[in-house]
Specification:
This protein has about 280 residues and is an alpha+beta fold. It contains nine helices and 14 strands. β10 and β11 (about 215-225) form a beta hairpin. The model has no long low-confidence stretch (mean pLDDT about 90). Bound molecules: guanosine-5'-monophosphate and zinc ion (ZN). The site of zinc ion has 6 residues, from β14.
């Protein structure tokens, strides 16, 4: 059930039994979301570049970004390049980026609008140009996110409720979870000010769990964005600035944690997921 390596570090193939666990997790997230199928979205692995620019992602996470480049020259230019080792010399940035987190597809959907309290569920394949490749750190990985938009107090209550709910769901799956206040590592070692502010405001909580090989990884996070996305995309609620929050389930890391806990026998993991689902209200 282990991953199969490819020539690219952090880009892994997975087997049928492993994918059944990932599919079971996706179903469980949807069931927990309690949403209509209309509000459950599946995103492609790319997103408009302008969305990540507007969201401030590129400014904050330059080292994780993956951009899509393409050739826009003439046939003649291409004939001169084709077959050369530096064929990519004239590739130009395109209007697309690789998607770094599922929730970025939600904010442009409500841009410039006044929104009632709104909830979404988004499944996606994400990409981050990670510098290391220890167990559970992949450059391409699956993420499902629940997103909440609304007045400040509602967002805070929703996010805080999910810290509890997420931890007890993961513990119910047999996982040894530690819930920890976090900051986004993208700020880099020098950027203490932003890190400290994020910690003081308690914007990010992570669920950390052993994923095998002695490695502990964050398998899920519960995030409060305040008015960051409401301001960037101009959506409001009740005549005031809308806040937003998201909870992210790292499906590949949760799958690895379940395999680490319950063993490599795929049925044991699937059974545990099914039983858990059966007890959900
Ligand atoms: P966040 O947006 O909080 O950084 O990431 C959300 C979740 O995506 C994390 O809790 C984690 O489960 C998953 N994730 C983040 N980076 C990676 C990665 O490099 N590899 C894998 N497999 N999952 C990741
Ligand atoms: Zn998110």
């Amino acid at each position: 059930m282990d991953h199969i390596a490819t020539p690219a570090p952090g880009v892994l193939l997975s087997s049928g039994p492993y994918e059944r666990i990932v599919a079971g997790l996706r179903d469980a997230v949807e069931t927990m979301s309690g949403l209509d199928p209309d509000a459950v979205l599946t995103a492609p692995p790319v997103i408009a570049r302008e969305v990540l620019e507007t969201a401030g992602y590129i400014r904050s996470f330059p080292q994780l970004v993956g951009s899509v480049h393409s050739f826009r020259g003439s046939k003649r230019d291409w004939r001169a390049l084709a077959g050369r080792e530096d064929w990519h010399r004239s590739q130009e940035i395109s209007d697309l980026m690789l998607l770094p987190a599922a929730c970025y597809h939600v904010y442009p959907q409500v841009a410039g609008r006044s929104v009632p309290v709104s909830r979404f569920c988004v499944h996606a394949t994400c990409f981050r140009q990670e510098a290391t490749g220890e167990r559970g750190r992949m450059r391409s990985f699956r993420m499902s996110e629940l997103v909440f938009l609304g007045p400040p107090a509602d967002c805070l209550a929703w996010r805080d409720g999910w810290i509890e709910r997420m931890a007890s769901w993961l513990r119910g799956l047999g996982l040894d979870v530690s819930v920890e206040l976090a900051d986004d590592p993208f700020f880099g070692p020098g950027d203490h000010l932003m890190r400290d502010t994020q910690r003081e405001q308690q914007l990010k909580w992570e669920m950390r769990v052993p994923v095998g090989g002695g490695v502990v990884q964050a398998i899920a996070s519960c995030n409060l964005h305040l008015d960051h996305f409401g301001g960037a995309f101009g959506f409001t609620t009740d005549g005031g600035p809308a806040h937003s929050a998201c909870v992210a389930f790292g499906l590949d890391r949760i799958a690895l944690a379940l395999i680490e806990r319950h063993g490599r026998e795929p049925d044991a993991v699937s059974r545990c997921l099914r039983e858990k689902e059966g007890t959900r209200t």
